[in-house]
Amino acid sequence: MALENLFRSLVLTSFLFIGFLLVFSPSLVSTSRAIEVTPDTKVEMYDVVRVNYTLWIENDIVDDQEGTIYVEDPEIIDKEGVPNTIIEEFPNVYAPPNLGFVEGLLGMKAGDEKSWQVLFSSGKAFNNDTDPYHREDLFYIIRLKKILLDASKPPTTLFDIPIFMPLVFLISLVILLLIILRIQRYSRTHDLFRLKKKCLSCRNIADVMCGNPGCNTPYCKKCFLEKNGCEVCHSNTMVPIN
Ligand SMILES: [Zn+2]
Ligand SMILES: [Zn+2]
């Protein structure tokens, strides 16, 4: 019966744990993190924006483009790619030209226009030596047309959520404590580790022992009373085993 209770509590805590994992699953987190765009919304990392820009190098316009940009460090995009959910929603999304440009976008609102310089020495311009504008200082006119998606970074796994690991640790600790408490309670009435003394007479778990300090033979209370005292030393005092 006590063993059944042990399993029941284990199953219950496991279900709670699985329920917790489901509630905090990545898809739910990412959808709940999309925020409504208002005229006051400013561009932050991981947003998707419609932008128009002109790139000047010295006195020449070398690039003039309009496009949908995923606001993230372009080098990280190269390594990890644009998240699938964002490509599904915005099929024309592409990586921003360089990190300096991304920093220029941050804080802009729809309708804003700004001049923005990215020096090569900052390390945030075109770092790749195959790029035609490698080693150049860049001068942008950036026009932010629209914020298409205001979102925080969608976590790729549960482990990206900052509180996840401490919570797992805490829950594991609680489960461990529950198990230890259960085992303790169970072993109070059962000889779980074969450490309990057994009644000399009937071999059930002893709850008393002979009160003669030199004897201390274990008995169950019932047997001790039935035998009118200790069979070994004939003492008739008994003391409880704690
Ligand atoms: Zn007995
Ligand atoms: Zn005795």
Topology (elements, then pairings):
Elements: H1 2-23, H2 26-32, E1 34-35, E2 48-57, E3 60-70, H3 74-80, H4 84-89, E4 93-94, H5 99-105, E5 113-118, E6 138-151, H6 164-189, E7 208-210, E8 218-219, H7 221-226, E9 238-240
Parallel strand pairs: 3-4
Antiparallel strand pairs: 1-6, 2-3, 2-6, 5-6, 7-8, 7-9
Bound molecules: zinc ion (2 copies).
What features would you highlight for this structure?
binds zinc ion, 9 strands, 6-stranded mixed sheet, Chitinase A, domain 3, alpha+beta, 242 residues, 33% helix
CATH architecture label of the largest domain: Roll
Helicity range: 25-40%
Beta-strand percentage?
A: 15-25%
H/E element order: HHEEEHHEHEEHEEHE
Overall description:
The protein is α+β, with helices and mostly antiparallel strands and 242 residues long. The protein folds into three domains: 2-24 and 161-189; 34-151, Roll (Chitinase A, domain 3), CATH 3.10.50.40; 208-240, no CATH class. Helix content is 33%, strand content 22%. It contains seven helices and nine strands. It has helices at residues 2-23, 26-32, 74-80, 84-89, 99-105, 164-189, 221-226; strands at residues 34-35, 48-57, 60-70, 93-94, 113-118, 138-151, 208-210, 218-219, 238-240. The strands form two sheets. Strands 1, 2, 3, 4, 5 and 6 form a six-stranded mixed β-sheet that branches. Strand 7 (208-210) and strand 8 (218-219) form a beta hairpin. The two termini are 22 Å apart. The mean pLDDT is 86. Residues 210, 212, 215, 217, 230, 232-233, 235 line the site of one zinc ion.
